Amino acid sequence: MRIAKDNVPVLIDVPGAIARHQTDFGDATGYAVMGAEYFSFGSGTDLTELLNGLEGDACQSPHWGYVVKGAITAMYTDGYEETSTAGDLFYWPPGHSVRAEDDTDIVMFSPQREHCTVIDHIKRKVNA
C-alpha cells in the first residue's frame, strides 16, 4: 500500500501547520517492539537473491515507511509490484522483496524481532 502526501487526508489546516492522517494503514497487532531504520539503496539494488532461504524466499516482516528520495518497488510473492516515490508513505506486508529504481533513501518502522531475523539472514548471505 502506498499513498502520496497530497492524498493523505488533511485533518488540521491552520496558519503555520497542516496535519495529515491516514487511517487503516497496516496492522501491527501481534507484534512487540518496533525498530526505526534509515536505508540508502543505490540505483538498481535488488534484494531478491539475498532473501532466498527465508520463508517464501521473501521478507516476512511488515514495514511502514516514507520515501525520502528516489523510487523503490515492492515485489510481492503473488506477483504484484508497487512503486513508491519520494514523498510517498508506504506499508509493505510480509511476503515481499524490494528493488531500488533510483538512488533511494527510505525511513522505515518495523517489528524489531521479525526484521532483525531478515537483516541477520542478509548479513550472513553478504558475508558468505
Count the DSSP helices. Answer: 1
Q: Choose one word for the global shape.
A: globular
Strand order of the largest sheet: 1-8-5-10-4
- Strand percentage lies at 35-45%
CATH class: Mainly Beta
The domain tally reads 1
Please give the share of residues in helix: 10-25%
* Rg over alpha carbons: 15 Å
Describe, in plain words, how this protein is organized in 3D.
The chain is mainly beta and 128 residues long. The chain has one domain: Jelly Rolls. The protein has one helix at residues 112-127, and strands at 2-4, 10-14, 17-20, 34-41, 63-69, 71-76, 81-85, 88-92, 96-100, 104-111. Strands 1-8-5-10-4 form a five-stranded antiparallel β-sheet. The chain is globular and about 55 Å long. The model has no long low-confidence stretch (mean pLDDT 91).
Properties at a glance:
128 residues, mainly beta, Jelly Rolls, 12% helix
What is the gist of this entry?
Helices cover 12% and strands 44% of the residues. With 128 residues, the protein is mainly beta.
Q: How does the SSE layout of this entry go?
A:
Blueprint: E1 2-4, E2 10-14, E3 17-20, E4 34-41, E5 63-69, E6 71-76, E7 81-85, E8 88-92, E9 96-100, E10 104-111, H1 112-127
Antiparallel strand pairs: 1-8, 2-3, 4-10, 5-8, 5-10, 6-7, 6-9
